[in-house]
Amino acid sequence: MEEKLISEKDVRNAWLRYYMFCEVGISYERLQALSFCYSLIPIFKKIYPDKEDMKAALQRHLVFYNTEAVFGSPINGIVIALEEQKANGEPIEDDAITGLKTGLMGPLAGVGDSIDWATLKPIIFALGASLSASGNAIGAFVLLLLPIIQIAIGTKLSVYGYKMGRASIREILSSGRIKELINGASTLGLFMMGALSSNYVALSSPLKFTFGKGNEPFVVQNIIDSIVPGLLPLLAVLGIYWWLNKKNQNMVAIMLIILAISLIGAITGIL
């Protein structure tokens, strides 16, 4: 009979250790492998009482590993389940465990980067920045929503991976829910960025011309606003977006160029 040595609490705690230290001790050779091993030490102490078995298990997970920590959390649960089965005598090859990690880390990283870092983080940070800019102290604490949401999702998915095993990833990736979630999150992110850009990107032209004495000055900004209100901020945002989408862009150079254009525009009175 298979002996259950690992509880759901153990799985959650193991993932939390990985979440806290996944960016610590990174190298080009192994990336997150050291933090992954560190997260499994309490698990291995329970299932491998023999030190040589534990040493072999740790060496197994020192191979290159890199994924998105939150939505890659099912891998942590699956690996714990496989290691527990191996410790109970099931014929699970080392290559099967490491191969599963290698095969899943890419697809789940793509899912996590699309939802977590490309959508959730910009929305929360933009909300916090807008509240802080208006003098609301809550804006500083809004940023805490990101780790709270990440921990809630990560602990849930890691336990799900432990319970369901390898079939859990097939179910997650093959179902259409992930695609719907990514599309919905991307659409929400675009709406939020558009709304924030229109409110917080301040760009106007002070140019004005006077034709003949006694006539009202011809204010360029009034003409632009009468055509499309907020046209200059919109063009600025679209231009920067187009620029960022071009390949091999240097972000520091882009920021310096934007700063230089802003200074020149302010000094000359164009912007």
Automatic annotation (TrEMBL):
GO terms under cellular component: plasma membrane
Compartment(s) of residence: Cell membrane
PROSITE patterns reported for this sequence: PTS_EIID
Transmembrane segments: 137-160, 181-203, 223-244, 251-270
An individual GO BP term: phosphoenolpyruvate-dependent sugar phosphotransferase system
InterPro entries linked to this entry: GatZ_KbaZ_carbometab (IPR050303), PTS_IID_man (IPR004704)
Keywords: Cell membrane, Membrane, Phosphotransferase system, Sugar transport, Transmembrane, Transmembrane helix, Transport
Pfam families per UniProt: EIID-AGA
UniProt-recorded name of the protein: PTS system mannose/fructose/sorbose family transporter subunit IID
